[in-house]
Amino acid sequence: MCYILFEFSEFGKSNKNNKKIRNFMFDRVIRFSGNDMPPLINQFNLTHKILFIPESPNYPGVDFLIWDSENKELSGFQITIGGIKNHRKRVDSFMAGNLKKKWKNLCKINEDKFFFCLVIPDNAVEEITNDGYDNLYIPFSNIRFQFPALTPLAE
């Protein structure tokens, strides 16, 4: 088991109320290169909580994915330091493209079990709540204790 804890107090939802969310303790971390699915994906075990980290700086739409085996949910995360408009094209291409379908098929989940979440500076919260999209987001202030380098960006 990997003792990497990813913890935050809540997802914000631009068109709905915030909801509390659980912590993630990963059983495995899978790093992979390229802009498609990880190689040797037959080693993927649906009963493990897994952090997927694409190492390609041009991986379409997400910076990392979390498979939550307990709730059978897959979440893709895009981190942005600037405004969300800078990432909209990459996000839209992932959400509408074949890659999202491949991830859903891998995890054997339907659309309602796949989530996309932006990790954003606190000053971008207003932008995301007014952008017309129904986005999940995590402000930097919710994760700054795990990632101290984000503290100046969260204030």
Q: How many discrete domains?
A: 1
Helicity range of the residues? 10-25%
Low-confidence stretches: 14-19
Mean pLDDT across every amino acid position: 75
**Percentage of residues in DSSP E strands:** 25-35%
Largest sheet: 8 strands, mixed
The count of DSSP E runs of length 2 or more, i.e. the number of strands, is 10
Describe this structure in words.
This protein is of the alpha/beta class and 155 residues long. It has 4 helices and 10 strands, in the order ββββββββααβαβα. The strands form 2 sheets. The chain has an 8-stranded mixed beta sheet. It is globular and about 40 Å long. Residues 14-19 have low confidence and may be disordered.
Q: What attributes does this structure have?
A:
18% helix; alpha/beta; two-stranded antiparallel ribbon; 4 helices; 155 residues
Summarize it.
This protein has 155 residues and is α/β, with parallel strands linked by helices. The chain has helices at 88-96, 98-107, 125-129, 151-154; strands spanning 5-6, 10-13, 16-20, 24-25, 28-32, 50-54, 64-68, 73-79, 114-120, 136-139.
Write the layout of secondary structure elements.
Layout: E1 5-6, E2 10-13, E3 16-20, E4 24-25, E5 28-32, E6 50-54, E7 64-68, E8 73-79, H1 88-96, H2 98-107, E9 114-120, H3 125-129, E10 136-139, H4 151-154
Parallel strand pairs: 5-6, 8-9, 9-10
Antiparallel strand pairs: 1-4, 2-3, 2-10, 6-7, 7-8
